[in-house]
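[09:14] KT: can someone run the structure on this one? pasting the chain below
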Amino acid sequence: DGGVFTWTPTEAQGPGVFTATVRVSDGNLSDSETFSITVNEINTAPVLAPLADQTIMLGATVSFTATAADTDLPANPLTFTLGPGSVGSITVSGDFTWTPTAAGVYTAAIRVSDGELSDAAIITITVTEEPVYTLRIATAGDGQGTVTPGLGVHEYLSGATALVTATAQADSDFAGWTGACSGAAPTCTVWMDSDKVVTATFALKAGNHAPVANAGADQTVGPGASVTLDGSASSDPDGNWPLTYFWQQTGGPAVSFTPTVSRTTFSAPETATVLTFTLVVTDNLGLAAPTPDTVVITVEPHALYLPLVLRNP
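[09:31] RB: done, structure tokens below
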């Protein structure tokens, strides 16, 4: 007979030295042995945050700060540099600047390194002799909808036209434009001869509207930990309170909990696993949220102490 010992250290546990004790028993007498486990750090490459291409007018300065993430614990110091043939300059902390002296299309290769591994991305900088204007797109009202080409700031060369389209969700109506657009037609053309702002207003349709389920943030816990599922951040646009709640487990070993309350608690399994739950809420008029919200509970492993039986030679 034999005992199998298994343990998978997490990122937070490396580097480090840990001890494990194995114990063998015949039911009356026992013996044990303690040994050390050295966990080495495995370096992972840093990841650059997305960088947007730039369009600027000749004589203007383009500047931005590049950022990156490093999942190593503790995180490694990161250093930013530019690749060969890049325009501009960048500090070791990621601050990029460049003032062009001629119109054209240029590139800059942004590189980040932790001293061993690296990530890189190339951005395109278009320098024009024509002025560059911005179009800021926003929404207003108690309804919901989308606007193409998207919320936020968009750049256009002087004299260009921007086609802006508003699309209401099923429970809302498009009520009209303000700013550089006017009227209630869902599509508007904006002539870009200056910086402009366009706002699309959406209004909720008359009648009852579905509540929105919020199952809370994903959680990472240890074996046997007490876990609380919290749906109290769920909402109803019409204020048709109280809401009723229905939790359902959709993945992982079955656990025991009360499914019909906003906050319910259970004990995590004693082994590493992943549990998933969905939450549906219903308003006091009987209308349920059309889309359940999902929360994921990750149970991380701990060191295991298993019996070890030794064969006699």
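[09:33] KT: thanks! The chain has no helices and 24 strands.
[09:34] RB: yep, looked fine to me
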